[in-house]
Amino acid sequence: MELDFLWEMAMEYGYLSMFLVNWLLLFGLPIPNEFAAAFSGVVTETSDFKPLPAFLSAYSGLVTSNLFAYGLGWLFGNRLIEWLQSTFLQSGIERFRQFLAHKGNWAIAFSFFLPGVRWAMPYVVGADRFPLGRYLLYALPAGFIWTVAYFTLGRSFPYAYEAILGHLQWFLIALSSIAVIGLMVYLAIVRKGGKGGQV
């Protein structure tokens, strides 16, 4: 069902479908995020879609849907969080709040690689009035690395990605670990560069 639905969207709406699927996921489309991100890579290998526009469509969909959720959290605050805790996001919200208390700003970046926590994160961060600039500093690179990882998986294994995502949890954990390490290196370089520029 998931594969058929994504193919139909891709054939009907082209690159726009890769953007829209992230918004549909935000509103409860029952497809794993990793599956949808990898599919954007698959279509570049199995049809006429070009890699760069497909990737940019998928990434911009992820970023804008997360910013929308952040904005909802900012606008409605704890009332929204209380309501969301009565939905399927309850455990994700609780886990992310604990993670945020323990890891601080880094929790925003790491949450992209933790299923269940990823979708709760922007609502909580927005409701907590986390500064937008700081949110973007951690969310944009993490979202980029996450999208690159799964997009590349789809391009590399266009006929096997469904089995990889469905049966090899350890592969996903390893892939996410590599992505987190890459993100940490990136943020360390950015931070060091910022300090080096001070007089």
From TrEMBL:
Keywords: Membrane, Transmembrane, Transmembrane helix
Regions that span the bilayer: 20-43, 55-76, 106-126, 135-153, 168-189
Record-linked InterPro entries: DedA_domain, VTT_dom
A Gene Ontology term for the protein's cellular component: plasma membrane
VTT domain ranges (all copies): 31-155
Family per record: Belongs to the DedA family.
Protein name (Swiss-Prot/TrEMBL): DedA family protein
Organism whose genome encodes this protein: Planococcus maitriensis
